Amino acid sequence: MSNECLTYTKVLTISSRRKFELIRITDEVIKAVRESGIRNGLVLVFVPHATAAVIANEYEHNIVQDYIEWVRRYVPQEGGWRHNMIDDNAHAHIASAIIGPSRTFPIVNGEVIRGTWQEIMVFELDGPRYRRKVIIQVVGCK
Asked: Which domain holds residue 11?
């Protein structure tokens, strides 16, 4: 058993097709952890974008629509936001700031620890976008 500790980084590129969209990336995160060879540590999932977020929750058609409805209801596009004079996407910036650009998960014995129904998703808030980056960084020991 090795005590070698290291960091592994993988960059995903994803695309969105709609204004609001939840894109599952759980399998890609699990794959990156396996590629890293790290058995125990943490995996960080981060989107370097001001109008997207990362969530961990159930991915089921109705709840996905509820996530989107929550954003539409509580951070409406036509909310009189000052930033809309520049880009017309203030709602996306505000929702992203509230939800957050990252999530961190423990890795135990080579497995990403999640709840039974938790999927890892990028929440597109200002689509469609051709190129969104997702940084997956795995830190720990072999």
From this structure: 5-141
